[in-house]
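This part of the workshop introduces the protein records we will be handling. A record pairs a protein's sequence with a compact description of its fold. As an example, a complete record with its sequence and its C-alpha cells follows.

_____
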Amino acid sequence: MSGVPGSFLIDLSRTHWRVLYFVLGQAGWLICVLSAAGGIGWLGVLYVALLLAAHLSWAENRSREAAFVAIVTLAGWAWESLVLKTGWVAYPNGMVLAGYAPYWMAGLWALFALQINPLFSWLRNHWALAALLGAVGGPLSFRAGAALGAIRFVDTWAAFAVIASGWAVIFPTLLWLGKRMSANPGGDHGALHP
C-alpha cells in the first residue's frame, strides 16, 4: 500500500490513477461547462477546488504542485482573455472583469493542470504529437463548450485558427513545465505518489 501523507492509505496502480484522473477530469469539464452555461459557474469551480484539495493531499511536494497549478491557471486564464479580445468568441456568463475571460475558465485551466502529469506525461518525448493533439483538441473542446452553451463563436473559423495555433504551443509547453516542476520528474505519474 502507498501512504498518502497525513491522510489515508490508497493502493492504486498507475493505470488506476490514470483512469481516476481521466474520469474525474471529464466529469469536471462537463460540470464546469454546464454550470457556466446555466449561469452558475461557481459550481464547476467548487468541483475543481475539491479535486485540487484531494490532488494536493496526494502530492509528494504540495508546494511545487500548488505552484504548478497556479501558474497553469493564471497563464491559461490570460490566454483565454487574449482569445476573447480577438472578438471571435463571446461568453454569455461569468464575466467578472470586462474584457477578460470568465472566472470559470480559470477553473477549467486548474482542472487541466491537475491532469498534465498524471495523464499526459507520456507525451513529453513526443513534442510534435503533443502539438498536433493540442491543435486539434483545443478547438474541439471549445466546439463542445459552444454546443453546450458556455461559449459563442462570433467568427468560428478565425477563432478555431487562433485556438489551434495557441494550443499547438501551449500543450507541449505545459508538458515541459509539468516535468520541470514535478516532485517526481522521472516518473510517468507526475507529482503523485501512488
